[in-house]
Amino acid sequence: MDRTDDSLIALRRILRATELFGKELAHAAGLSPVQFRVLQLVAEQGMSTPKAISVQMGVTQATITALLDRLEKQGMITRARSQVDRRQMNIAVTEKGRATVAEAPDPLQQRYVRQFESLKDWEQAQIIAALERVASMLDAEDMDASPVLHSGEIKPS
Amino acid sequence: MDRTDDSLIALRRILRATELFGKELAHAAGLSPVQFRVLQLVAEQGMSTPKAISVQMGVTQATITALLDRLEKQGMITRARSQVDRRQMNIAVTEKGRATVAEAPDPLQQRYVRQFESLKDWEQAQIIAALERVASMLDAEDMDASPVLHSGEIKPS
DNA sequence: CTTTTTGCTTCGCCAAGCAAAGTAACCTCA
DNA sequence: TGAGGTTACTTTGCTTGGCGAAGCAAAAAG
């Protein structure tokens, strides 16, 4: 079907664009894309743990340890042993980290958001409906997609 | 705006899903995601060059050289100096490579396509419109997005 | 027939990923 | 309570993917 191809092509364009934006963004912030992602995650949640981050990003803890080492060395985050569960480390964003995230606004978001918000109401609604439809077609049967979003709960110190 | 957030969330779901599929797929094929992508590219086009691949993937040629080394060692592709322009290498997929791509059908495509094709006509049209809209919002100013698809022309040997 | 450009490789480097093994803290249940 | 298992994290050692710079050979431009 032509139709299917069209939709796949559009999807790929989206993927490609976001990939490039990711690089751009991270470069601007002086961090690698992955480092920035971690920083964003922690900043969003105010506080996190290596375990939680590893689950959210779908990588092993060992990888996160290394990433946090680098972010810590750059003064973006701090590690502190949790008082509640002394096995856990509480990861917090420093002022510098917070500033980095804030000042390097996601270019994807920036550009896209600006345009999206200039759309008419019904257009926005329609796009959201379509995106959600596509998203659910993609991750519907992905039985561990939703768990991932909720597991790795953290008890902050 | 809530609306904007909704659309971004849907977008991220899409990104996450495709990322996971990428890993899944590559794992099934016994190749890394990146290696598989290269193989797919070459297979699609029947023949390519390191330069063309590097442009299409947005990485340097040095990176491609290394990737091709691995794919060649695994007997997935062959390198042959072009007779037309002796600076160029013609990259071709071997039978094994072709089989690998064929037998490890893109799970993203599989699952998504099946569902997409079961949609009503007007739904398909609407989704395509929305996706294309989003894509163009994302890569509109990215002046080399479209060129990328066409540049790196190759004169096969 | 130089000079510049292009296409590819090599080299040396670093980041990101994994698995496996190690350590410390927590939990269980007998 | 205390022995054995589980959980959270780190360390180690390895592979892959990525880059820039340097190099070489071929082609294109003067």
From TrEMBL, chains A, B:
One of its GO terms (biological process) is response to stress. Residues 4-136 form the HTH marR-type domain. GO terms for molecular function: DNA-binding transcription factor activity. Pfam families: MarR. SMART domains: HTH_MARR. This is MarR family transcriptional regulator.
